[in-house]
């Protein structure tokens, strides 16, 4: 029975849509998560199985379930260069790839701009992350990029930063005057990335609006992914990057609390 | 309350009055007090005997007998817990070493005598009970400690405060780096952020989903161009190129007409070297072979304009009307006819 329970718990934990609750499958998930927390032998069995597939449990509780992280070289890991990921498509120019990647941290900053917002959302299970519309998220990124442009009106040099690449994209291609709207507009790019997250069940699509008008609701589970898998690592990498670049980056300044 | 030897298990407070007390005090009288009276009684008896010993031996006045008694008690309990018990002589010998530290100039015989007297203080029947009770306490403490250590990893799952601001400390710095730098910084973390990649089984449905153009929206509301087939699809994720190479090698080794079922049964017999394939991909080989052969049926490479690559010109596939079903694959048992050697290259 332990093996069956372990398998069921891992099946729940690998399903990002599964949430422990009071009835049906959700109650079963809550029971198994509770058992994982209280039964040392069972926890050891589950941990061993996960270790075998290159994974570890980063968080466990009876309200949020288990959060599983895969080692980068594990058989259950997403290959970092998988062409299934929307920022890795082979037809993309490098600037567009970077802009697509930027949508992921921008989505987090949109729903939780400050550490306190993030903290509130993660710690209080009754709080729901706000809905995100494609156009609003594009505007959110564009505003930061425009601010950078205002600060650097005459950008020189070959190495154009990401904000410059974002502003090179049309915000939204008009569809009435053109028979074939350009696909490379920033709003469509944001839509494409969010739609991919929707197909991966990390976002819930609200309503049935056309592409650029789509609205998405982040699952609470996405916050655990940000907290456990992305923010710390990315912040550390950025600090390291800023230090190796000679300490000129805004990263190191901001991390010390002084203005950029 | 005087502590004289082993007092009554139940003390002066009558049990009948328990109900008028708070639950805490009632539990104390019922459960804790009898045991604590016993322990306190044992301890009082020990100190009485120690007092008698020091009076009987005024020449030992320079020795700290209380420390040696406690040392002996510790040795008995620890040895009992760790190894299941030591003889009186072993404990006396060990304790004599500590006694000697106090007066190194005195004779070893005296140290031995003091140690023996101190150990004998403890070796009465009643004090043995004290030792057993303290050993039990030790075991309980040790089991709590073990349990606590086993539960330590649970502490990993306690709540952790967020201190990093996503907007100011992640997004804004990322806007200032070049695309190349951003990709280098984020490629790995983003793959981790996606979480577990659901194990996938290749299926015809998935293949169809991948290659079919998206559905046409007839409502007219969508700005999507109906003639735009969308992005060029990438290569099938999880499809190992070594599989295609293995299939190409197997088909390249066909030198005389051979049916697909014969080829598959030859494969099932394990005559093909498949060392370059991951074990997890080997079971796909029959499927890929079947699809490749079926895909080559009806190819019009000789009539098509342009120069098809050599690997597409290796085979002619004929349909004989025979069918096969080997349990995993079924369908037309196509006949594979290799091209003559001179035309292959």
What do these coordinates show?
- The complex is a heterodimer of chains A (260) and B (345).
- Chain A has ten helices and five strands, in the order H-H-H-E-E-H-H-E-H-H-H-E-E-H-H.
- Chain A has helices spanning 2-13, 24-38, 40-52, 94-111, 115-123, 134-151, 162-168, 186-199, 220-244, 250-255, and strands spanning 55-61, 65-70, 132-133, 203-206, 215-218.
- In chain A, strands 3-5-4 form a three-stranded antiparallel beta sheet. In chain A, strands 1-2 form a two-stranded antiparallel sheet.
- In chain B, the strands form two sheets. A three-stranded antiparallel beta sheet of chain B has the order 1-5-2.
- Chain B has helices at 23-56, 65-83, 88-102, 108-122, 125-150, 166-175, 179-193, 204-211, 241-252, 260-268, 279-282, 285-296, 341-344; strands at residues 258-259, 315-318, 323-325, 330-332, 335-338.
- Chain B is mostly helical.
- Chain B is 53% helix and 5% strand.
- In chain B, helix 2 packs across helix 5 and helix 9 crosses helix 12 (285-296).
- Among the domains of chain B are: 15-149, no CATH class; 241-344, no CATH class.
- In chain B, strand 3 (323-325) and strand 4 form a beta hairpin.
Could you list some keywords that capture this structure?
heterodimer, A: 260 residues, mainly alpha, 2 domains, two-stranded antiparallel sheet, 10 helices, 5 strands, 53% helix, elongated, disordered C terminus, B: 345 residues, three-stranded antiparallel beta sheet, two-stranded antiparallel ribbon, 13 helices, 5% strand
Low-confidence stretches of chain A: 248-260
Q: Report strand % of chain A.
A: 5-15%
Low-confidence stretches of chain B at least 5 residues in length (pLDDT < 50)?
1-10, 300-308
Q: Strand portion of chain B, in percent?
A: under 5%
Read across the widest sheet of chain A, the strand sequence of neighbours is: 3-5-4
Helix content of chain A: 40-55%
- Measure the end-to-end span of chain B: 110 Å
Q: Helical amount among residues of chain B, as a percent range? A: 40-55%
């Amino acid at each position: 029975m332990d093996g069956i329970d372990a398998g069921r718990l891992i099946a729940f934990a690998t399903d990002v849509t599964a949430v422990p609750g009071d009835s049906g499958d959700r109650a079963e998930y809550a029971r198994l998560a509770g058992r994982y927390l209280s039964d040392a032998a069972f926890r050891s069995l589950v941990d061993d199985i996960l270790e075998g597939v290159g994974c570890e449990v980063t968080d466990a509780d009876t309200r949020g379930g288990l959060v599983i992280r895969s080692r980068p070289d594990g058989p259950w890991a997403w290959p970092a260069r998988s062409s299934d990921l929307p920022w890795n498509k082979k037809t993309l120019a490098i600037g567009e790839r970077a802009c697509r990647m930027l949508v992921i941290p921008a989505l987090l900053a949109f729903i939780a701009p400050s550490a306190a917002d993030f903290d509130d959302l993660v710690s209080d299970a009754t709080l729901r992350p706000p809905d995100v519309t494609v156009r609003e998220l594009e505007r959110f990124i564009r505003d930061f990029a425009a601010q950078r442009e205002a600060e650097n009106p005459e950008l020189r040099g070959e190495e154009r930063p990401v904000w410059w690449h974002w502003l090179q994209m049309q915000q939204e291609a008009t569809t009435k005057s053109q028979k074939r709207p350009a696909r490379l507009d920033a709003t469509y790019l944001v839509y494409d990335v969010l739609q991919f997250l929707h197909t991966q069940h990390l976002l819930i699509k609200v309503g049935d609006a056309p592409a650029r008008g789509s609205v998405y609701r982040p699952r609470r589970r996405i916050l655990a992914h940000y907290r456990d898998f992305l923010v710390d690592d990315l912040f550390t990498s950025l600090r390291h990057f800023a230090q190796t670049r000679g300490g000129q980056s805004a990263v190191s300044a901001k991390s010390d609390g002084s203005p950029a | 309350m005087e502590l004289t030897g082993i007092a009554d298990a139940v003390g002066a407070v009558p049990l009948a009055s328990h109900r008028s007390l708070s639950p805490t005090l009632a539990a104390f009288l019922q459960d804790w007090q009898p045991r604590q009276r016993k322990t306190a009684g044992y301890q009082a008896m020990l100190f009485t005997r120690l007092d008698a010993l020091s009076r009987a031996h005024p020449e030992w006045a320079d020795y700290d007998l209380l420390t040696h008694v406690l040392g002996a008690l510790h040795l008995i309990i620890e040895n009992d817990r760790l190894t299941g018990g030591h003889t009186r002589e072993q404990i006396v010998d060990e304790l004599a070493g500590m006694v000697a530290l106090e007066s190194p100039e005195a004779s070893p015989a005296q140290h031995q005598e003091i140690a023996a007297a101190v150990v004998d203080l403890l070796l009465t029947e009643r004090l043995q009970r004290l030792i057993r009770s303290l050993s039990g306490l030790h075991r309980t403490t040790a089991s709590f400690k073990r349990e606590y250590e086993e539960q330590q990893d649970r502490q990993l799952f306690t709540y952790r405060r967020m201190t990093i601001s996503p907007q100011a400390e992640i997004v804004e710095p990322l806007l200032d780096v070049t695309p190349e730098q951003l990709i280098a910084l984020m490629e790995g973390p983003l793959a981790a952020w996606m979480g577990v990649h659901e194990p996938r089984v290749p299926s015809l449905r998935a293949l169809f989903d991948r290659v079919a153009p998206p559905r046409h929206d007839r409502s007219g509301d969508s700005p999507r161009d109906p003639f735009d087939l969308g992005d060029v699809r990438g290569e099938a994720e999880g499809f190992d190129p070594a599989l295609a190479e293995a299939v190409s090698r197997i088909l390249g080794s066909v030198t005389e007409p051979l049916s697909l079922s014969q080829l598959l049964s030859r494969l099932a017999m394990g005559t093909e070297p498949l060392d370059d394939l991951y074990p997890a991909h080997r079971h796909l080989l029959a499927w890929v072979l079947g699809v490749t052969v079926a895909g080559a049926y009806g190819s019009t490479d000789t009539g098509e304009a342009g120069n098809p690559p050599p690997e597409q010109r290796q085979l002619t596939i004929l349909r004989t009307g025979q069918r096969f079903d080997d349990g995993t694959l079924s369908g037309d048992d196509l006949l594979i006819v290799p091209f003559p050697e001179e035309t292959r290259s």
